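Quick bug: DMT family transporter output formatted oddly.
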Amino acid sequence: MRLSRTQLIAVMVAVVGIIFFSAKAVIVKLAYEYDVPAVSLLLLRMSFALPVYITIALIKRPSSPEKITGKDYLWLFAFGFIGYYLASLFDFLGLQYVKASLERIILFVYPTLVILITWLFFKKVPTRVQVMAILLSYAGVFITFSEELGVSGEENVLLGGVLVFLSALTYASYLVGSGYLIPKFGVVVFTSYAMIISCVCVVVHYLLTSYDNVFSYPAEVYWLGFLMAMISTVIPSYMISYAIKHLGAPNFSIIGSLGPISTIILANIFLGETLSYLQIIGAVVVICGIILVSRKK
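Here's what came back:
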């Protein structure tokens, strides 16, 4: 089937957005070379992104304000806390111990977690194909991760893998739970509100637990924080929303499989990370499983 001009543009936007998102783990690893604590780095990311989301929140209005109740705002806070604060925190903590390419492969399994959470809480039984796809995805993660444990021999690698998996789990929980709020607020407004809530949570976390001076780092750290906020957070979030709108989620999920691949390439270029042939096979298995689980019946 021939793509229309709008769809072709959406494909190009999706590819660029995915590459930008994939660069986040690489930027975090580069910042860690300056001995920046995870919470401080997360604070820089959120602080640079916050003005953009506040501006959008002031300009845009919810899609259906008459349907929004006080309880909805409480749920909004909960989903902002879970989906953008906890998920980001676990991810940044995990990246202290695992390769950027391995982090992306583990995070990529979140669609399987969405299906499992939906099954557990909403009794929506997955299809046979979905079950096979889930098993395939986790087999790929096991292959990749077990090989990494064998290569590094570090116990912290296992800790990092668990933390990144918790990031995927909290983000999947956010996707499942926020589904009924997004039609009321709209995607852009909901994302902006949730990110503002997340930033407040990060600031509180920093004030309660950190003893470093966030203004004392080399200039390179702030440039990396700015790039992380703009290139790997704000810009791709809207690019991907545009792509999903014009291509549909199932088609976008196929393009989204470029995420782990682009991270592996970027990590090799900027960090010198390499994966063994067995780990590459594991990554391909994960990607195939996610494409299969994301397809329509």
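Actually, after a second look the formatting is fine. The chain is about 80% helix and 0% strand. Closing.
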